[in-house]
Specification:
alpha+beta, SH3 type barrels, Enzyme I, Chain A, domain 2, 2 domains, two-stranded antiparallel sheet, globular, nucleus, transcription regulation, MSL3_chromo-like, Chromatin modification-related protein EAF3, chromatin regulator
């Protein structure tokens, strides 16, 4: 990457890419120093302190490799494509939408092994550790869920709201429900085992990825106030959807083989469709709570 101080770049902020400038670069292994406000989860990897062009300096932040792109024609085209997809998603979401209830029972956890577990273990180690030269995958996010991601971005960054924590339907429960809903339709015990491995691997990776790449700057103070439990037991569907939308970038930072990629894509597509079926229940506007001026001042000062 030709990403260095004072150079232009593109950076993900929510589901879209924005033009930005790199103000500082922290390299893996460097001592951040006492005056550097680098989030703890980014100190052991290469990360970038950026300023979004046209935004107030209060939005300047440190981000990892997963959220930054070189300023070139290919990525500018991607920026334009994401904007168009977001507009289409909003239009489609106004015309469609449905939700169904799922069966809720307890399931036994199995120790991950095999292709799905191998995929999960590589994901677990991937944030910021490997250059984005790995396999490229396509995750099929339904238009309604794309619109939800855009609305989520606006709720956090524009309306200064937060997802209320802890979520009653946390990631742990959601993945358990998804496993129960899907496993009965799997063609063989082997496929059921792979599904279980996928869910367990995703649960582990969610905990690793959340503080590094799934939070907006405005949410970091909220995380600091909720460190007693693992993220999968506190956060819910909205943050899980953020992770699923970023899987193509995540997988590109791994050395995952084709078989593992197929497992990831197959079950991720099924999980997204299942979330779509539950959208009225899982992505209600009542998930968000307002914040006061005191929180806003502290959060944007972190």
């Amino acid at each position: 990457m030709s990403l260095k101080e004072n150079s232009k770049c593109l950076a993900f902020h929510g589901p879209l890419l924005y033009e930005a400038r790199i103000l500082k670069v922290h390299h893996s292994g460097e001592d951040p120093g006492d005056d550097e406000e680098i989030p703890e989860d980014l100190t052991e990897q290469e990360c970038f302190y950026i300023h979004y062009q046209g935004w107030k300096s209060s939005w300047d932040e440190w981000i990892g490799k997963e959220r930054i792109r070189e300023y070139d024609e290919q990525n500018l085209a991607l920026k334009k494509q994401l904007i168009e997809e977001a507009r289409e998603a909003r239009s489609a979401a106004k015309k469609t939408g449905s939700g169904v209830k799922s069966k809720k029972t307890d399931s036994k956890r199995k120790k991950p092994s095999g292709p799905a577990a191998a995929a999960g273990s590589q994901l677990y180690a991937s944030p910021g550790k490997v250059e984005a030269t790995g396999p490229r995958i396509v995750v099929h996010i339904p238009q309604q869920l794309k619109a939800i991601l855009v609305d989520d971005w606006e709720a956090i960054t524009k309306d200064k709201k937060l997802v209320e924590l802890p979520c009653s339907s946390n990631v742990d429960k959601l993945l358990t429900y998804f496993y129960e809903h899907t496993s009965s339709n799997e063609p063989s015990p082997v496929a059921q085992s792979q599904l279980c491995e996928y869910c367990d691997g995703l649960r582990l990776y969610f905990d690793r990825a959340l503080p590094v790449m799934l939070l907006y700057r405005f949410e970091r103070l909220q995380l600091a106030e909720n460190l007693d439990e693992p993220p999968h037991s506190i956060y819910g569907a909205m943050h899980l959807l953020r992770l699923l939308s970023m899987l193509p970038q995540v997988v590109a930072c791994t050395t995952m083989d084709d078989q593992s990629c197929e497992v990831i894509v197959g079950y991720t597509d099924k999980l997204l469709l299942w979330l779509l079926q539950q959208q009225d229940k899982l992505f209600s506007k009542s998930l968000y709570v307002n914040t006061g001026s005191q929180y806003e001042g502290l959060a944007l000062g972190m």
